[in-house]
Design a protein that fits this description.
- The protein has a single domain (12-120), classed as Winged helix-like DNA-binding domain superfamily/Winged helix DNA-binding domain (Arc Repressor Mutant, subunit A, Orthogonal Bundle), CATH 1.10.10.
- A three-stranded antiparallel β-sheet has the order 1-3-2.
- It has four helices and three strands.
- With 121 residues, it is mainly alpha-helical.
- InterPro entries: WH-like_DNA-bd_sf, WH_DNA-bd_sf.
- Residues 83-94 have a biased composition (Basic and acidic residues).
């Protein structure tokens, strides 16, 4: 008997809902989810219904959805991946900023050296 959890296939917009719910406490109304995503509440609700059918969410009441253990696992993984990607982007931006600053510092030093050379003539 196979006791491994079955894999659930979710679309990027569905994954975004799971990620938001994971980050925001696991329970949220469809209108609030829609605001987080920048979509209509009708669209957010249709995504939530699909996720409910897939076993990732459960309907708490007519307007509110909550993560199931399956949804929580997917949301946690998606959130970790997003945070790692953001951290990598920040590190890359910091590296670029340091490079630009080094070039500016070198240019200033060169201009200062030229100015100092003109003053001694």
């Amino acid at each position: 008997l196979d006791h491994r959890p079955h894999r659930v296939s979710v679309q990027p917009s569905e994954r975004e809902i799971l990620e938001i719910l994971q980050d925001e406490g696991g329970v949220m109304g469809k209108s609030q989810l829609a605001r987080f995503m920048g979509v209509t509440s009708v669209y957010a609700e249709s995504l939530c219904r699909k996720l409910t059918d897939k076993g990732c969410l459960e309907e708490v009441d007519i307007k509110t959805f909550a993560l199931t253990p399956v949804g929580e696992a997917i949301g946690r993984a998606a959130l970790a991946k997003t945070k790692a990607k953001e951290q990598k982007q920040r590190a890359s931006q910091d590296k670029r900023k340091k490079k630009v600053q080094a070039v500016r510092d070198a240019a200033r030093a060169e201009m200062q050296a030229m100015a100092d050379g003109e003053e001694t003539q």
